[in-house]
Hints:
Elements: H1 2-6, H2 37-72, H3 79-94, H4 108-131, E1 150-153, E2 159-166, E3 174-179, H5 195-201, E4 203-208, H6 224-237, E5 244-249, H7 253-262, E6 267-273, H8 286-293, H9 298-309, H10 314-319, H11 330-333, H12 340-346, H13 349-362, H14 369-379, E7 392-393, H15 400-408, E8 415-416, E9 422-427, H16 435-444, E10 449-453, H17 466-477, H18 498-508
Helix pairs in contact: 6-7, 8-16
Pfam family, one: Abhydrolase_1
GO molecular function: hydrolase activity; transferase activity
Protein name: 3-phosphoshikimate 1-carboxyvinyltransferase
Amino acid sequence: MTEVNDAPSWTAGSSVPLPSEFGYGGGVGGEGNGGGGGESEDWKYHAAEFAKGLAEMSVEFGRGCRDVVKQSVLTKNSYVMRNFGEPCAKVCARLRFLNEYLPEDRDPVHAWSVIFLVSIVAIAALCVNTGQDTTAPLVKRLYIHPPNASRILLPDGRHLAYQEQGVPADRARFSIISAHPFLSSRLAGIPGLKASVLEEFGIRLVTYDLPGFGESDPHPNRNLQSSALDMLQLSYAVGVTDKFWVLGYSGGSMHAWAALRYIPDRVAGAVMVAPMVNPYETRMTKKERSRIWESWTSQRKLMYFLARRFPRFLPYFYRRSFLSGKHGQIDKWLSLSLGKRDRALIEEPIYEEFWQRDVEESVRRRIVKPFVEEAVLLVSDWGFSLSELKIQTKPHSKGIIFWLKSMFSQSEPELMGFLGPIHIWQGMDDKVVPPSMTDFVQRLLPGAMVHKLLYDGHFTYFYFCDDCHKQIFTTIFGNPQGPLASEVEDQTPIEVNSEEQEEDTLSASPAA
């Protein structure tokens, strides 16, 4: 009891002694509480101990798995040993000579296990790397060339850029005006067309930039009727006095259709190569629309849907592709599915050079609005139907007076629609403008002459094919006759009768 009573007692206000093994210092202001160095060292110590413990547990876990495999799988009575034990033993006996190449202090089983696992990992890594092309292609940037186009001033104050090919205006037997498709320019025309072919047939080819493309000024309220009027004004400005032919290729054909509808009196005929129509045309049957849409990629269907419903989203995709300032492939930019011959053509250097130059001219202004307008025009209401171009008798007006006139007059019935020839060339392997679209056009225009190309796609017949170009011109113009002869003024002196000349001389002399 005396020891207990003699023990020091705790009273209020006195400090509590803490054992040194808890990590605290001898006093409140001791070294153990000064600064944070001790806490950081303790954290590192605990992390290192935890890593060591985890490593030891992993090793023990691996040994345990090995023991389980030895006791269950590698025993003599197991299924694996009964079926594969003897063959494996024979193989190991034959390969035992390889152990001579191992270090003497290494267990052969352990060494070959490590070599086998490392070989599997190396082969897997090689397979992954060879499956992907790790070489990054060189990205070629767009180059904007100096302006060099001929331009006309339209009545509304806009400028329209154009390009002429072939024979001069005074020697041309035939004149052709062509509007380019989407993401193209006046430089396209008929790709690869030689000047000698135009000279042979006496053709003058005029191509122009659509509003906002190339060097042409944008149109504030653009539609297909204004496109036809631009073509009309261009024909007057370049001196095309007679009727001219219109050429439409792919998406540019909708401007040729508009010319047949709005200025038919100025158009002699139409040449359509893989002509595009509105994929949302209301006169399409469900089966026709399904056959057309099934040949397109999902991304292209999405672009048509956005152009029709949400055109505000199109600039996002355009700025990431052809308006990014870099070159790319046409099938990726326009989401095209191509056949074998088309794909082989676009990979040729001659096509790549042409395509890059044409795109550079098309996006010269770096304005996204004209491209959105062109995409929206294709999938919107055109303001007319192709069935209106069909040749048919004009309906008579109602009333007694018109009925009496029709009874006593012997005049022929008046025709309406486009009265000129329409020639369509369609590749049967075309996946950009599928043949089912031309079948729909032929149903609406039974008078159109369709030339089906069994083995051609979207590009192969129209691009860089001399025989194809000659075949087109021979079909619509006949055999080549060359350009017109230039008119030379007759400078032969006029012969005057000698008697009349003498009388004129006497009458002109003064009286004596």
